[in-house]
Amino acid sequence: MSAATINPTVIGSAWKAFQDLLPVKLGTIQSNTQYKQVISLMNSLLDVVGDNENHALADFLDLVSQLVEDYESTLHLIPDASSHEVLRFVMEQNGLNQTDLAEEIGGQSVVSDILNEKRRINVRQAKLLAVRFGVSPAAFL
Length: 141
Description:
By secondary structure, this protein is mostly helical.
């Protein structure tokens, strides 16, 4: 779509209608309350989209996740870390070993594969880990 074909009136109406359907106003997160609401929306989207990158809502989930990530980066200066590094860190901080997470992640060998970078954490696993450790699923994705 070129700039010449953009109709701000139509886009504005569509955006308002879309926002009216959502349980939270989407945009740059401005408060902890809005953050919690957007996290809830993100978790609902994760339930629907799962690991299906071709799902109709996958791009919307990516957008919502980016809003969460942007807000979190303003709260905590966390150095970039891969998902396996984050998992290793929270395990160490909580005195856990691979067997302790086997049920949630799918077996001790799966935990080992993730920690050794042979496997990536999927959306379902990220959500379970987020609940266990009280962080955003985005920390593991």
